[in-house]
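Priority: low. Protein: Polysaccharide pyruvyl transferase family protein. Input follows.
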Amino acid sequence: MDLDSLTLAYAYGCRNAGDFAINEGSLALLDRTVPDVDVTAVSRFASESPEYERMVEELDGVEDGALVGGPITYDPESQSRPAQLAALARNGLQYGVDVAGVADDLSVHSALYEGITDADAMLFNGGNAIHYSPSHGNLPYLLAMLYPLQVARRNDVPYGLLPQTTFALEGVARRLVVPLLEDAEFVMTRDAITFDYLSEFGLSTQLINGVDTAFLNGTPTAGDPSDGESNRIAAVPRFSTLGDTGELDAAGKRMEDTFLTYLDRLVDAGDEVTLTIQTEIDAAWAERNRDRLDDIGVGYYESYDPDELRAHYAEMDLLVTMRLHAAIFALSVGTPTIGVYRPEWGPKMDGTFRTLDIAEYAIPWDGATVETLEAATADALDEGRALSQHVADNVSLRNEALVSDLRTALSTADGFA
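Result:
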């Protein structure tokens, strides 16, 4: 394989421990498959932003100078409306210049453009990046996520996609995305449902069924159940719409009440329950519901560090989560996990659980009642070490397959070989 340099786009930020763990997992994957190749990671955030500075401090595995800022300065979470409009105008102009590839002899291109066109190849980082929802008006989001792929394709830079969950590609989204997938050297999926979905598109590119790269940084081992009388159960909420924006709708409010009642019953039954926070938006939810949670009697644990979270979940007998990456942290250390999900979030939860042969522990919101959650909890706790061993074995197998599949893809793809 005659490959000296790679660009990884995008590297995610620190607001969400799960997104940040994708960075670490993807870098670990590259270190195991192409250890001698120079890797430059392009951040989703501009180099002058506070989020970029946090990434520089926290992200191990990237040498000094190998993390560069991204071209997108728009950030509705921290900017006033006039600042948002100004950022959109600047970003739109930069987007046009980069994607069109004009004025190569002038210093008008972004660090993303330079990083991609100067490298031998580009890898698009894994996650939940490629999706579209007209009801949430996220075409600008989709365009921003496709930015690196468009630059690589326009400039004949070979590229591949690390494990993705992809869904809802209809209309304009399908017309935008399918050509980019078709021209990729390979496309990796991170769950079985996405693999089946993309298989229906008849792509000529190599399609590989993998798992989220964040699994790679855990050590899957079968844990022993609690020695005490109390079961140790961690619970992770997610009460937000697609993309973590918008008000809680009727289904969300029903699930919120179900979730809180379920926690109340666990505590009443003598279980030791810890509400675990690993995203800033969930920290805000916990603060809004502090009185109710205190009345229930749950413990609290908050961290945005993937290693700390893995250690935390390793101490638990069970995790019940609405966030996929909480499940990944727990499953990657062999802790039995129940996943509760909304279809609007895509197939990442149920698809991942299916990949790991634990599909019965993925519960959709419309099937989640206090009673079904209690029944799944009792079943998982009864299975105990046997379920933990099953999880650990399957995670180990999928991790090894992911490394092997990427190594093979890189060595056999025409653009990388």
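The mean pLDDT is 90. The radius of gyration is 21 Å.
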